[in-house]
Amino acid sequence: MDPNAVLARTPLGAEALNGEGAELPRALRHALILIDGRSTVAKLEQRASMIPEFPAALRELAAKGLVAPVGGGTASAASRAGSTPGAGKNLVASLVAAAEAVLGDQAGKVVKKLEEAGGSRETLAAAVDSCYKLIRLTIDESRAEEFRKAAKDLLGRGG
């Protein structure tokens, strides 16, 4: 995850923090509490030195759509997907945020594939499968699995 990125809670993250929906494991809940929409990832990691595996917790929160980068990441992805209808924009943006969270600086080609896929659930599912194969071949199998799981969760709940 980019150490200069600023993360903010998504509406889904705010719901999770308020106890609505599924229970979060302690480490994820503590990490989510620290997200303030103003601090960089590097600053959050300094504050969270007492939370075991905090960077992994941040990636998981982003992959679950509970946090997203402020400014650049999700918002620009949604606006670049301009031809995508309403809910599809949110789903594309959530998938892009998950890819960026899991892959960091290596997310470029995956983000492009997701944004070009369109907004229908079927085309996005096909793009996710294609991205999974790309990540597996060019980056890392475990991160490919992490991305695929996060993407399937997002596709399953509608973004």
Q: Can you write the helix and strand succession as a string?
A: EHHHHEHHHHH
Sheet having the most strands: 2 strands, antiparallel
Principal-axes shape call:
globular
* Integer average pLDDT: 80
Distance between the termini: 21 Å
C-alpha Rg (nearest Å): 15 Å
- Quote the beta fraction: under 5%
List the helices and strands and how they pair.
Blueprint: E1 7-9, H1 11-17, H2 26-34, H3 41-47, H4 54-63, E2 67-69, H5 73-80, H6 86-103, H7 108-116, H8 121-138, H9 141-157
Antiparallel strand pairs: 1-2
Helix pairs in contact: 2-4, 4-6, 5-6, 6-7, 6-9, 7-8, 8-9
What would your notes on this structure say?
- The chain has 159 residues and is mainly alpha-helical.
- It has 2 domains: 7-69; 73-157, no CATH class.
- Helices cover 65% and strands 4% of the residues.
- It has 9 helices and 2 strands, in the order E-H-H-H-H-E-H-H-H-H-H.
- The chain has helices spanning 11-17, 26-34, 41-47, 54-63, 73-80, 86-103, 108-116, 121-138, 141-157, and strands at residues 7-9, 67-69.
- A two-stranded antiparallel sheet has the order 1-2.
- The protein is globular.
For the structure shown, list the relevant keywords.
159 residues, 9 helices, two-stranded antiparallel ribbon, mainly alpha
Tell me briefly what this model is.
With 159 residues, this protein is mostly helical. Helices cover 65% and strands 4% of the residues.
